[in-house]
């Protein structure tokens, strides 16, 4: 109840209504005190009329009764410039305060009312006001404050009781209104979400906006759009998964067929027929590329790349191993390899996966340069900043074609050379992301291409 939206709204509403009633309570009690004193002045004025009617020859017993009924000890009336004691009786003590109600400000009335509530002892006070119906210039009385305080407390308790009833009633009405207008529709949205989560491929479970509250309806429409897109994406993912399975099976069988064909090409190369001698290398190259494409497709389709096992390794030594392997593949081609890496630079990575990342980038650069038939250079450099190790693989090749740059890291679309599958960079990106790093194309053009790898340092502990 307390943790629910409607329960908290009920509590807050009660608190706020009570706070508003308290703010109203203080001026209300102040107004009640003023009315009480004015009533005493009016009763004292009526009592003084008896003295005026008898030309001040009033019986002492009647005078005492009039003062008792008025609730005062004496009455002083000023009809012109002179003040006249109309009724009087012995005053039991010293007057401690005088209150003039003629020109009292609201703050003064509130201050005096609060003081009367706080001070519990009965005091003798003088009250000054204006006679009603222009019966004089001024009237003043002397009275005790005990009756006034009791009346103020009784009035305050009644006001607080009424405030409590109003607060509870208002809070209950708002409670049921909130449950009807907000909580129930929100629970409906939650139920739709739970139903959709159990079977997101089922388009029938997509929410249909029906809320009357504008903000809630906007939320339902946004949820509907999100669910629609997710359902379509899941359907597409399922179709792609099925297609991927089919491609993997075809690639597997095709690889076996091409491997057998590759064995036959070894015998064809020994033929003395000029035509066969001229055509055999092209056939071998085509079969080799087809086998490589099948193997890459199978490797990518398995999607079983293990999580990296991070350890500290010497980057300069790992890069030297990569370059040594590439030098064997280069052979007599006019391609030079160089490395600019601090000898003591230690990075935190999976040695095998980082080797594959750098080797793949260097191999792509080498193939791009060899494809031009011109000389070229490939360099691997590294540096570190406050947050990451930065590795750059750059070449002086012809640069990437525009189409390759547009789909650079997309499988089967980002191939930079004729016959390429585009899987190499997709796999490299996946390995780098597994380390929490990034792979970016820093530049590409006639002056060459450069890829930058950033591996976050994290903790070296």
UniProtKB/TrEMBL annotation:
It comes from the Bacteria. PROSITE patterns: HIS_KIN (PS50109). It catalyses: ATP + protein L-histidine = ADP + protein N-phospho-L-histidine. It is an enzyme of class 2 (transferase). The keyword Nucleotide-binding applies. This is histidine kinase. GO terms for molecular function: ATP binding; phosphorelay sensor kinase activity. The chain crosses the membrane at residues 6-26, 159-178. It comes from Roseivivax isoporae LMG 25204. SMART domains: HATPase_c, HisKA. The keyword Nucleotide-binding applies. Its EC number is 2.7.13.3. Residues 216-243 form a coiled coil. CDD domains: HATPase (cd00075). Keywords: ATP-binding, Coiled coil, Kinase, Membrane, Nucleotide-binding, Phosphoprotein, Transferase, Transmembrane, Transmembrane helix, Two-component regulatory system.
């Amino acid at each position: 109840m307390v943790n629910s939206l409607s329960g908290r709204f009920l509590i807050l509403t009660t608190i706020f209504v009570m706070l508003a009633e308290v703010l109203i309570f203080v001026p209300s009690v102040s107004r009640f005190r003023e009315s009480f004193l004015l009533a005493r002045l009016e009763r004292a004025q009526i009592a003084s009329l008896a003295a005026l009617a008898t030309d001040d020859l009033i019986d002492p017993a009647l005078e005492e009764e009039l003062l008792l009924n008025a609730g005062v000890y004496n009455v002083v009336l000023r009809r012109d410039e002179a003040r006249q004691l109309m009724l009087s009786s012995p005053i039991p003590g010293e007057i401690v305060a005088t209150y003039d109600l003629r020109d009292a400000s609201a703050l003064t009335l509130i201050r005096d009312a609060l003081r009367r509530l706080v001070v519990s002892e009965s005091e003798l006070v003088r009250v000054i006001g204006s006679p009603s119906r222009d019966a004089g210039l001024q009237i003043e009385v002397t009275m005790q404050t005990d009756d006034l305080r009791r009346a103020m407390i009784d009035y305050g308790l009644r006001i607080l009781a009424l405030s409590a009833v109003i607060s509870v009633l208002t809070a209950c009405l708002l409670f049921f209104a909130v449950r009807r207008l907000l909580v129930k529709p929100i629970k409906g949205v939650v139920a739709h979400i739970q139903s959709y989560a159990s079977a997101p491929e089922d388009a029938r479970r997509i929410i249909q906006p029906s809320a009357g509250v504008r903000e809630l309806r906007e939320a339902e429409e946004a949820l509907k759009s999100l669910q629609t897109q997710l359902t379509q994406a899941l359907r597409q993912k399922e179709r792609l998964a099925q297609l991927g399975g089919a491609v993997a099976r075809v690639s597997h069988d095709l690889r076996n067929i091409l491997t057998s064909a590759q064995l036959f090409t070894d015998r064809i190369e020994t033929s003395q027929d000029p035509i066969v001698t001229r055509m055999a290398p092209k056939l071998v190259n085509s079969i080799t590329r087809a086998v490589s494409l099948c193997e890459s497709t199978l490797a990518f389709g398995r999607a079983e790349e293990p999580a990296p096992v991070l350890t500290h390794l010497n980057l300069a030594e790992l890069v030297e191993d990569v370059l040594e392997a590439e030098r064997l593949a280069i052979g007599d081609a006019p391609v030079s390899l160089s490395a600019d890496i601090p000898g003591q630079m230690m990075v935190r990575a999976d040695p095998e996966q980082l080797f594959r990342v750098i080797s793949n980038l260097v191999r792509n650069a080498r193939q791009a340069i060899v494809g031009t038939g011109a000389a070229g250079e490939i360099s691997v450099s590294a540096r570190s900043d406050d947050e990451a190790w930065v590795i750059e693989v750059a070449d002086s090749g012809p640069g990437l074609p525009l189409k390759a740059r547009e789909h650079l890291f997309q499988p089967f679309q980002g191939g930079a050379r004729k016959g390429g599958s585009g899987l190499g960079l997709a796999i490299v990106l996946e390995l780098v992301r597994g380390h929490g790093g990034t792979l970016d194309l820093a530049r590409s053009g006639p002056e060459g291409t450069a890829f930058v790898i950033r591996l976050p340092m994290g903790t070296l502990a």
